[in-house]
Design goal:
Belongs to the MipA/OmpV family. The chain has 272 residues and is mainly beta. It contains 5 helices and 12 strands. It has helices spanning 7-16, 182-189, 193-199, 241-244, 247-252, and strands at 38-50, 58-70, 84-90, 94-103, 123-135, 138-146, 148-149, 154-166, 169-180, 210-223, 228-239, 256-269.
Length: 272
């Protein structure tokens, strides 16, 4: 495994899309800080996941993130696999805003079996999100994003989270669906005739857009104090449809995509 050079990209995303942190299911609990100024949350994130979509090899990514909210505003739950987001419409049950994600690239240095296949640069995916809480312990969220740099397709993630808090512990678990248009699937799962000829181990393949994965995410957060908390989580995706049928996945990768992560958060109040 190797550390991906994502620090600069992650910092840029944070600058554009301030994440809204949370570690509790109760949407209406008071914020345990002074009522004036801002609450700033600094996070150190460590994630392990497939090196590229469909890969059977794993990479480690370490990066910082930053989020903030006004003191006195309620603390909102955020799933470990949410994109970095900032809401411009928010009430007790609905949030709407902008979101951003980072997608690592696919390089020959990651796997020599990729010889002949086009290099795919890293990508950022800005977009919009909406989430809805039909119940105090149940959240539905949808993200629609467009790739920049590494790919130029549209992708969407749909999720449902059951959230429960027991003292200092908050548990969350729920299903996930991933979708991508033909531009996205052709970038990561397609094979041109030239690529097939150069590689010699895969055949030409032109996938269509649609459902790309199904899975689930589970996380647990422990609040050590009003300032400090840690979160551990695991994600699982099963590639389906045209993504799963890709010769790249069949020959070099895996339909099963596991991910793990750990986040340490520190929150503090600023002055007026």
């Amino acid at each position: 495994m190797r550390f991906v050079n994502s620090l600069v990209v992650a910092s840029a995303l944070v600058a554009g899309f301030a994440a809204v942190p949370a570690k509790a299911a109760d949407l209406f609990s008071p914020v345990p800080f002074v009522p004036e100024g801002w609450i700033v949350t600094l996070k150190g994130n460590l994630r392990v996941g497939p090196t590229y979509p469909g890969a059977d090899k794993y990479s480690v990514i370490g990066y910082p993130s930053l989020s903030f909210r006004r003191a006195g505003t309620p603390e909102r739950f955020s799933a470990p696999d949410d994109g970095l987001s900032f809401s411009f419409l928010e009430d007790s049950a609905i949030r709407v805003g902008v979101v951003g994600r980072f997608q690592g690239g696919r390089y020959l240095s990651d796997d020599r079996r990729l010889f002949g296949l086009d290099k795919i640069n890293w990508a950022v995916e800005p977009g919009v999100f909406v989430e809805y809480w039909p119940l105090a312990f149940l959240r539905a969220r949808a993200e629609l994003r467009h790739g920049v740099n590494g790919h130029h397709g549209f992708v969407a993630d749909l999720g449902l989270d059951l959230v429960q808090t027991f003292g200092a512990l908050t548990f969350s678990v729920g299903p996930r669906l991933g979708l991508g248009d033909s531009s996205f699937t052709q970038t990561y799962f397609g094979v041109t005739p030239l690529e097939a000829a150069l590689n010699g181990q895969v055949t030409p393949y032109r996938p269509s857009g649609g459902l790309t994965s199904v899975g689930a995410t589970a996380g647990v957060t422990y609040s050590w104090s009003d300032q400090w908390s840690t979160t551990a989580f695991v994600t699982y995706k099963r590639l389906v449809s045209d993504a799963a049928d890709s010769p790249i996945v069949k020959r070099f990768g895996s339909e099963n995509q596991l991910g793990f992560g750990l986040t340490a958060s520190y929150s503090f109040a600023t002055g007026r």
